[in-house]
Amino acid sequence: MKILILNGPNLNLLGVREKSVYGNRSFEDYYEELKAAFPALELSYFQSNTEGTLIDKLHEAGFGAYKGIIFNAGAYTHTSLAISDAIKAIDTPVVEVHISNVFARDAIRHKSMMAPFCTGSISGFGLESYRLALQYFERLKPKQIGFSV
């Protein structure tokens, strides 16, 4: 089963940026750990700081190329109607993830523009938020998310 992990703006700085919030590991290092932990899943990873590029990737992945998308849209989560429209338009289920507990941060981060169009949201577990999302996809029977293997 192919799963795309999609990261938005500033997540290329994990391990460098605000270590007290985001930890001291790069996502690339953690991604290698995820691939080893989920050998039955075919994982792909993409990161961009550009809203239009993220939308293009959602369109590319969202019509059968992948069986699930794990998406940390960063700050675009709270501001981008265009990203929420792209999620609404595609067929592939999307799980929204966040490293930090967005509800323990400034008030603007308490509202997600994309959550209404996602299968679910996971936040506050550090990088383990991605692992929890992968466990969700791994445990689903194919017909539960509208596809056949």
TrEMBL record:
Stored InterPro entries: DHquinase_II, DHquinase_II_CS, DHquinase_II_sf
Keyword field contains Lipid biosynthesis: no
Name of a matching Pfam family: DHquinase_II
The entry's keywords: Amino-acid biosynthesis, Aromatic amino acid biosynthesis, Lyase
Residues holding substrate: N72, H78, D85, I99, S100, R109
Active site: Y22, H98
Molecular function terms from GO: 3-dehydroquinate dehydratase activity
Pathway in which the depicted protein is active: Metabolic intermediate biosynthesis; chorismate biosynthesis; chorismate from D-erythrose 4-phosphate and phosphoenolpyruvate: step 3/7
GO biological process assignments: amino acid biosynthetic process; aromatic amino acid family biosynthetic process; chorismate biosynthetic process; quinate catabolic process
Family per similarity comment: Belongs to the type-II 3-dehydroquinase family.
Function: Catalyzes a trans-dehydration via an enolate intermediate.
Description of how the protein assembles with itself and partners: Homododecamer.
Protein name per Swiss-Prot or TrEMBL: 3-dehydroquinate dehydratase
